[in-house]
Amino acid sequence: MHILIAGIPENTKNYENALARCHISYKTTLYPSDLSAFDRLLLPGGGDIHPSWFGEEDQGSLSIDRELDQAQFALLHTFITAGKPILGICRGMQIINVYFGGNLIQHLPTADRHRYNGQDQIHQADCLPGSLLFRLYGPSCLVNSAHHQGCGKIGAGLIVSQTAPDHVIEALEHRTGPVLGVQWHPERTDPAPQQKDMADGNKLIEYFAAL
Q1: Theoretical Cys-Cys bridge with 115: which of 148, 149, 162, 170, CB 3.0 to 4.6 Å?
Q2: How far apart are CA 203 and CA 184, in angstroms?
Q3: Which class for 198: exposed (0-12), middle (13-18), buried (19 or more C-beta within 10 A)?
Q4: Which residues are catalytic?
Q5: pLDDT tens per residue across span 106-156
Q6: Taking the CA atoms of the chain, what radius of gyration do you get in angstroms?
């Protein structure tokens, strides 16, 4: 098994460390020479997607990188077409939602409860019964947030499988395909959490690797 991290190497160390911790082979690049060498795609976190991708003007989006947008959407399309498993984290989940026809809230009304302020925000998240997130973490767990945008309209074929108390969407699953997104950051949750009920991100990463 070999995972493609669709990102810029100097910005993806946490994701690389998380995969290495789980003994998973990976390569980080936006322009792989041989896509057949990879059987899974990980879309990492980062800056905001240009709102033109979901038909809107810029109303508070930050750290936009059009080249990154283009490369990640192209790779996502290729892996979806091939039926290969995909995991989107934070920005990566938003890319997935937009790809399937959804949109984003460019600045959440409750952004102060979710955005990075020198450290991740920690808050409760409730899991939809019967969903993957429910199977991994039960009805409720604590997750870590570092974002100011969120999913608005949900893309075709996707279901909301986890939400925060303020109704911000924390996870999306595809109804039929091996596509999963989380708004939080499993790559940097402590593998032996000190805080009771904190979601162990390794569980999610290992599930993705086993698909």
Answers
A1: 148
A2: 14
A3: middle
A4: 90, 185, 187
A5: 999 999 999 999 899 999 999 999 999 999 999 999 999 999 999 999 999
A6: 16
